[in-house]
Amino acid sequence: MALESLDTSTALITSDIVLFGLLAATLGAIFWLASGPTPFWKKFFAWVPALLLCYFIPAFYNTVGLIDGENNSLYNPIASRILLPAALVLLTLSIDLKGILRLGPKLLFVFVAGTVGIVLGAIVSFQVMEWVHPPAVAGDTWKGMAALAGSWIGGGANMVAMREVYEVDATLFGQFAVVDVAMASALMATLLFLANRSAQIDARSGADTRAIDEMKARIAAYEAENARIPTLTDLMIIIAVAFGLVGLAHAISNPLAAWFARYEWSARFSLDSAFVWVVLTSTLAGLLLSFTRARRLESAGASKIGTVFLYFLIACIGMQMDFLKLADRPELLAIGVIWMSVHVLVIWGAARLVRAPMFYVGVGSMGNVGAAASAPVIAAAFHPSLAPVGVLLGTVGYATGTLIAYFVGQILRVMAGA
């Protein structure tokens, strides 16, 4: 797809190049202000995380018609197909796998609880709306909810897979896509806000944060011992490793997806999706490099460059959000609110049960709802060294999202009497 958009959008800005410049300038302005050039901005960003603005300012541009967040090529293919896998490579390249394993079974328990919360949330929200406002769940609404379950357990690829499996109407699918973005953005905004206050929350709840503190200290010590001012050679090697592996991932993803597509069972695990293979191979490549001398690139700023890519991805996700589209079927938003509330209650209860820290709640929740694109962002909001934990949990959903969402769809089909 050409970088210059050819659509007939009525937005003020229709050029992808101009849109790229606007997003880059917006991100730069946000982080410059977040650095605290004046006392006002120091106080402002003490309460409003910079990451939150990276979502909602592009969403505001889209809502008021300044840009067209959907009809452009910045998110797909540039951000999602190029920058996301590059970020995964650079964030996992410096991973301390042994340290992550030391975080223990509590993290996996909270993550699984988040998945259970999504399944229960679908059932509860459908039943509640059938009692309160039956038209909201009439007809094929259950099909759209099955597709949404695919997104909130796995990711976009799983959501599309559920659309194909249940033959979801394009309009209904689009409406649930708006609910998806709105609720996921609201959840991320809440988690980003809580991340800044995680220490106080953990202290009040009596959470055991020793494993996380040890990992942070170990990463900090490693960085202190190996940090250096990056040279031009360092930066070029980092870029070469990141985008070279992205190219390799794309080169082998289509053949792999085509090979697995010959087997009917592969669709249940999204193994027939080329994008899933891009994510999996990029993550695996980064993990393998973490056991080699390539890990030393972290001391030259590999993860920081990866984080830059992630922030641009965040802005591209945010620009697709249009608050006004929810007015078409506002009852679907009510379904999303009930659904997400159940998820939050279940994962919060599970965390309190095992005295898990707030970080486990954040990364476990977004590992389900946001998958590999958003989970590392939330993890990094708690501490940059924890981003790889989000990457790992986010990719788990891709393998299980389609199968579990299919199971959810079958339950909803019975409840709808279809």
From TrEMBL:
Keywords, sorted A to Z: Membrane, Transmembrane, Transmembrane helix
Spans through the membrane: 12-32, 44-62, 74-95, 107-129, 172-195, 235-253, 273-291, 303-321, 333-351, 358-382, 388-408
The protein's name in its UniProt record: Membrane protein
Organism for this UniProt entry: Luteimonas terrae
